[in-house]
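User: Can you recover a sequence for this backbone? Please restate the input before giving your answer.

Assistant: Of course. Working from this structure:
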């Protein structure tokens, strides 16, 4: 997988890729990430990439020209499966989208800022728009890092034990069951007996039951989705 990230704040988004599972995926060559500073395509020597919106109103809008130049340059070098715009006014990312995207090869991810980008960029280039939740962030960078993490960990070979991605919360629309590790008892707080029993079919049954209970309590909307 190759991901090209377009941003006005490359420093803000780099560090999530320098640790843990994502770093290992990069080191193994399973994914390549390239950062592009939109200011390199600015319309003047002061690095201008945004302007006031037509029609009036507070907030700046990211201009069409720098983004056009940057995306066109990338598109002239290779084909992209998707050109994704990170914005709160879009469908919310879920595990199904992450699964689908993890099977593709090349992405451009454009991080929004200020009031957003000139609509003509969306009409012309963007093939997918993604939000990471119903709240507003200062920019698309953190959201892009979240999206990349969710896709990269699903690329075969990234996680040591591939079954662990499959048993994650949300993979089957259920929250994960509770987990315990040594010591079996701490200050009188006990691990459920069943987990120490060695009876693996019973343990699986217990985990599934707990997953359903947890989902009913915390995210009943997920169960409703399953019934559809
Ligand atoms: Cl993708 N961008 C911004 N700025 N805020 C968000 C978001 C994205 N997703 C949720 N909030």
């Amino acid at each position: 997988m190759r991901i090209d990230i377009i941003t006005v704040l490359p420093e803000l988004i780099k560090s999530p890729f320098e640790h843990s599972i994502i770093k290992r995926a990069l080191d193994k060559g399973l994914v390549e990430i390239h950062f592009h500073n939109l200011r390199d395509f600015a319309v003047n020597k002061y690095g201008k990439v945004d302007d006031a919106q037509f029609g009036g109103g507070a907030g700046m809008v990211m201009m069409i020209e720098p983004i056009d130049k940057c995306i066109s340059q990338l598109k002239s070098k290779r084909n992209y499966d998707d050109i994704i715009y990170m914005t709160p006014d879009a469908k919310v990312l879920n595990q199904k989208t992450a699964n689908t995207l993890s099977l593709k090869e090349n992405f451009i991810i454009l991080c929004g800022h200020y009031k957003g980008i000139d609509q003509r960029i969306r009409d012309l280039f963007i093939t997918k728009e993604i939000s990471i939740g119903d709240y507003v962030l200062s920019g698309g960078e953190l959201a892009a890092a979240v999206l990349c993490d969710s896709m990269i960990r699903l690329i075969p070979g990234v996680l040591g034990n591939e079954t662990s991605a499959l048993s994650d919360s949300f993979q089957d629309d259920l929250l994960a069951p509770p987990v315990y590790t040594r010591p079996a008892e701490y200050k009188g707080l006990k691990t459920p007996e069943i987990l120490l029993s060695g009876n693996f079919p019973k343990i699986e049954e217990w985990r599934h039951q707990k997953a359903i209970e947890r989902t009913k309590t915390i995210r009943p909307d997920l169960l409703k989705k399953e019934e559809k």
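That completes the design. The chain has two domains: 2-152, 169-227.
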